[in-house]
Description:
Oligomer: single chain
Strand content: 25-35%
Shape: elongated
Mean pLDDT: 77
Number of helices: 3
Helix content: 25-40%
Strand order of the largest sheet: 1-4-5-6
Amino acid sequence: MVRNVSGPVDSHNYWLTGLPRTISREDVFTMSNVNKNLIECLEALQKTQDYISQLETKIGDLEKDKSVESLLPYIQFSIYRPVKVFTKNPKCSKCDENGFVKSKDYFYNRFELCQCQKCSETFNTDRLDVFSTSYIDPKKVYDCVDAEKNLISVDINFVYGSFSEEHLKYDYHSVFYVNKEDCERYCTEVNNEIQG
């Protein structure tokens, strides 16, 4: 494609002095495609902004009335997720008040962290109350609230109707269940793996 350019083409001033005098059909077609893509992007941006404003309204309503009970009229159903809980073991009699065991190594005194100070991790079931279903292109998500009044969006593809051994391979952040019993079974299986 040849463009008519007036004067010498300078790489620094091309956009100021070297503007084309004629526009080809290819340019018009390209500009119309760019325009269509821009319109689609603006529509997707508007949908996203509308969704964010809906969530901000819901958050504002929650902050006015800080109780989860304020969402009860909107709650459609509950889903369950596994959560990791760390528990500190009780202090034993072998270590000092800071949890260290003193051992002598040749001429040096060494301090090691006692086994009783290591936290044990277990998985428990947590309930999420779903109060709306939203669409963020191209995903369908559940808007949920937990017991601490945190708003959580859950991709519907990660919500399972029943337990499967395959779910143990997934990261626990991406596993949700419709039934509490299935989530408890998942937690039991993972806890058994941790304890060996």
